[in-house]
Write a structure and sequence with these properties.
With 91 residues, this protein is mainly alpha-helical. Helices cover 76% and strands 0% of the residues.
């Protein structure tokens, strides 16, 4: 028995959620680790730990857009957080 169509999202929303999780989540986790490397005194420690922690954060951020009803809002939040982190890294 197929799923009820009123509970399924449109193809545009599926693309937005998938791309926000896949690409946006990776970019956000990489930006977070970049900023941590700048804030902490020794970026070598961040590089060593980011081998594992980057993928753990990425997988967490991959799931988050599916909690939104609108995938474009997830993109907006991810881009806003990335810009805020990059602006804070210049201070």
């Amino acid at each position: 028995m197929p799923a009820n169509s009123k509970h399924l999202s449109s193809p545009e929303q599926r693309f937005a959620k998938l791309s926000a999780g896949l690409l946006g989540g990776y970019l956000l986790s990489a930006t977070l680790h970049y900023v941590l490397g700048i804030w902490l005194g020794n970026p070598a420690y961040v590089v060593v730990t980011s081998i594992y922690s980057l993928y753990l954060v990425w997988m967490l951020l991959f799931i988050v857009p599916y909690l939104f009803t609108n995938g474009w809002k997830a993109w907006a939040y991810y881009l806003g957080i990335m810009l805020a982190l990059l602006l804070l890294s210049t201070l």
